[in-house]
Amino acid sequence: MNNDLLTRAVEEVVPKALAEKKLKAKKPIRIYWGIDPTGSKIHLGHSVPLRKFKAFADAGHEVIFLIGSFTAMIGDPSGQDAMREPLTKKQVEKNFKSYKKQAAKILDFKKVKVVYNHKWLEKLKFDEIVKLASNFTVQQMIQRDMFKERIKKESPIGLHEFLYPLMVGYDSVILDVDCEMGGNDQLFNMLCGKTLQKALGKREKFVLTTKLLEGTDGRKMSKTYGNCIYIDDEPNDMYGKVMSVNDDLMEKYFECCTDVSLNEVKKIVKGDPRTAKARLALEITTLYHGEKKAQQAAEAFDKVFKGKELPDDIPEVKVKKGTPLIDVIVDNKLVASKSDARRVIEQGGVKLNDKPVKSIDAKAEEGICKVGKRKFLRIMM
Asked: Which fold has domain 316-380?
């Protein structure tokens, strides 16, 4: 049995004894992981379950990648302090097309069966949904942390949100799996599937949750916080973002985002923090861009931060006199949006010719614009 399957980057296995028993039997187990493609970009936080899924596929197990083509149209309440906006089927399809292209950097889709849950969930009749719902109580549902929090704040909880874990649980019944895998914030939903499989006479399953990854500011990695390291980030951006991660997260990043053996990781993080983080940044950037580009990113980073020099490949843009600087940095993708630009300017993160930009109404000037620590733009007029 490959012990790493149940330990590396894993938060919980429930029940662990069942998981060990199934893996010791040395027969391929049927495992599934479901995603609601609510966004089109994958960050390193998403890569943790993707990498674990790959490990099961590489070990010869039967892996099923479920697309929440129906559940995404309900909206997952997990981790939400407000009702999540449901998506249309068209949005789901568009998001998954982009998601799959990025996920293929990690997962070999030739080893994976892809299924869509609208194929069975949209066929359920109302009496069947009521019968499924009879396996749970309202008390069980309101024990979820996010519902408790909303009740305290007197924020609304939609009745459809109680149905979400029911639908996810029914996925398990249809697929009749030995294991369901997901992020640690999905534990409640996955245990609902375990309950339904048992109630409807299917095989007994165990649940495996992967660790949640913090972003560059130490909070949970999320697009909302603007702290993500995306797997399609340019090599220099990816390397630089990893170098900005808090020192105390290095061991977790090595465990969850690289293939470096855990014994070696222990030795690396005991050494000089700057050297350890450079190794981490190089490992991660190499995984997604190859060794050559990762090495170039490392050299470019050292040039800017050790040598205090400007990078060689600063992009140039010609603008008209009087053009708002905020428009220039948004149009040239130095920030994600105008609201992001305002936030960065207000926090003192934008410099023009080495002088902090203090106003969101500032005009562009000829020279070097720097956003954050790693993004540069040469403005010409």
From this structure: 3.10.290
Tokens found for residue 351: 């410099």
pLDDT-derived band at 151 (thresholds 50, 70, 90) equals confident
The pair of structure tokens assigned to 250 is: 């290095």
How far apart (Å, rounded) are the C-alpha atoms in residues 175 and 168? 11
Structure tokens at 98: 């982009």
Half-sphere exposure of 296 (CA within 13 A, CB side): 12
Domain boundaries 233-305, CATH class: mainly alpha
Closest by CA to 66, choosing from 170, 191, 195, 161, is 170
Where in the sequence of the chain do the CATH 1.10.240.10 domains occur? 233-305
Q: What is the DSSP letter of 334?
A: S
Cα torsion through 330, 332, 235, 221, rounded to 10: 10
pTM (two decimals) = 0.77
Whether omega before 235 lies within 30 degrees of 0, making that bond cis, reads: no
Calculate the CA 91 to chain-centre distance: 19
User: Which tokens is 198 given?
Assistant: 């048992």
Domain with CATH 3.10.290.10 in the chain: 316-380
Q: What percent of the chain has pLDDT over 90?
A: 60
**Distance (Å, whole) CA 38 – CA 27:** 34
Quick one: fold of 4-210?
A: Rossmann fold (3.40.50)
Nearest one of 38, 45, 9, 11 to 241, comparing CA atoms: 45
